[in-house]
Amino acid sequence: MPTASHERSLDSGAVKSRPVPDHVPPEMVRDFSLFTSPGMLPTANGDPHAAVACVHAGPPIFYSTSNTRDGRGTWVITRASDQRRVLQDTETFSSHRSIFASVLGESWPMIPLELDPPFHGVFRSLLNPLLSPKRVMALEPAVRERAIKLIDRIAASGTSCDIMKDFAVPFAVNIFLRFIGLSDDGLETFVGWARDLLHGDKEQRPPAARAIVAFIDELATERRKEPVDDFMTFIVKAKVEGRLLSDEEVRGIGVLVFVAGLDTVSAAICFDLAHLARNPKDQELLRSEPDRIAVAAEELLRAYSTIQMIRVATKDVDFKGAPIRKGDYVSCATMIANRDPAEFECPNEIDLAREDNRHAAFGYGPHRCLGSHLARREIVIGLEEWLARIPAFRIKTGTEPITFGGHVFGIENLILDWS
Ligand code: HEM
């Protein structure tokens, strides 16, 4: 999420830059940070994606002195083709970190995200079938039912709502509960944990992380005692390399499945609805021709990508003239790759009918998003049901959506109005 993928949720504290390491040539240092550059700090009506796209005027790799939430420096790979090289070369660029566990002062990995091959592949093969297109198809009626329930409630309660709070987060949490086989009775509790983890301060995040871990551990214990036909039973009964999974491995998988689909899906839905609110023609097009929504969602995933992936160099390597040294962090930001003019024609134009859209929103290589089929269906179904039930909408006069950068880009205070 180390990737970075789902890291914003887990870091805390202010960003402080560290000194430039001796091996980094001064001419390779640039004043750039996904956290603190203009447009990255919470900004009313900001456009962080356009702000990062500016890096394409510069070199293919440079050094940023502060490019993680805790202020670590990273090499920044700007070209999509170079990012693919890094993400594919897991021997040189490792995913081995413990982002979630470190919030609790511990060091177990989220699985499979923070494992490297070959062990990564063992877990990936185990989990692949659980999120296959066929499995997602089976989940689809429940995803749609939950979208409809939430949107109908919003429609019944007035002519405006806060998208993150009223729709995007409860929707994503709901699908997580459905995916692991629980009813939505505990929805409010989970939404509270998700809120504290994603948007809480230094004091709120550790208790939320602890509560999630306790929940996963408890569910695993229950399913070991009384197996049923669900996700957690599958995990506690599964074998890798001829043995049952350890408690820590079960926890590493459970936590990742919870964290991975939260701020990612909710941010995508928010950016998509913000785009449609600001572009009434696009909104009208998708409303009148809903068959276009699936293709449009791909373009919106490209243009409003949210994840910065981080890798750690396992050895010294020269990369396009950059002296990367063992232990250095290397950033592959999807929001940068997806605005690469060498990869996409007019990358800063949003064309909802763009063809052959091979974007990097879900990453690349062995860690490519395991939940991409589910995520895609959540986004498409969310948009379909929203447009079918809510009349022409815009950003509520007098309110301003707040965008922010970071490991996971996002948007808050998106108040839509259809009065
Ligand atoms: C729009 C929504 C989403 C986006 C943009 C997204 C993006 C990503 C990216 C970029 C990665 C690669 C991370 C890396 O290489 O370091 C990743 C990995 C992963 N994602 Fe997603 N994700 C989304 C939704 C989901 C959902 C709904 C799930 C469901 C549980 C999920 C589960 C995972 C898992 C398990 C991994 C780790 C895969 C591995 O390490 O082999 N994601 N995601």
Task: Tag the structure with descriptive keywords.
three-stranded antiparallel sheet; Cytochrome p450; binds protoporphyrin IX containing FE; alpha+beta; 419 residues
Question: What's the structural blueprint in terms of helices and strands?
Answer:
Layout: E1 29-30, E2 43-44, H1 48-53, E3 61-64, E4 74-77, H2 80-88, E5 93-94, H3 99-103, H4 119-127, H5 133-156, E6 160-162, H6 163-180, H7 187-199, H8 205-225, H9 231-237, E7 239-240, E8 243-244, H10 247-260, H11 263-278, H12 280-288, H13 293-303, E9 308-313, E10 317-319, E11 322-324, E12 329-333, H14 334-337, H15 372-389, E13 394-395, E14 402-404, E15 410-412, E16 415-417
Parallel strand pairs: 1-3, 4-12
Antiparallel strand pairs: 2-14, 3-4, 5-9, 6-16, 7-8, 9-12, 10-11, 13-16, 14-15
Helix pairs in contact: 5-6, 5-15, 6-7, 6-11, 7-8, 8-9, 8-10, 11-12, 11-15, 13-15
The protein binds protoporphyrin IX containing FE (HEM).
Structural write-up:
The protein contains 15 helices and 16 strands. It has helices at residues 48-53, 80-88, 99-103, 119-127, 133-156, 163-180, 187-199, 205-225, 231-237, 247-260, 263-278, 280-288, 293-303, 334-337, 372-389; strands at residues 29-30, 43-44, 61-64, 74-77, 93-94, 160-162, 239-240, 243-244, 308-313, 317-319, 322-324, 329-333, 394-395, 402-404, 410-412, 415-417. It starts with 28 loop residues before the first strand and ends with a strand. It is α+β, with helices and mostly antiparallel strands and 419 residues long. The protein has a single domain, classed as Cytochrome P450 (Cytochrome p450, Orthogonal Bundle), CATH 1.10.630. Helices cover 44% and strands 12% of the residues. Residues 1, 3-5, 95, 112-113, 124, 256-257, 260-261, 264-265, 268, 306-307, 309, 334, 361-363, 367, 369-371, 374-375 line the site of protoporphyrin IX containing FE. It holds the Pfam family p450. Its cofactor is heme. Residues 1-10 have a biased composition (Basic and acidic residues).
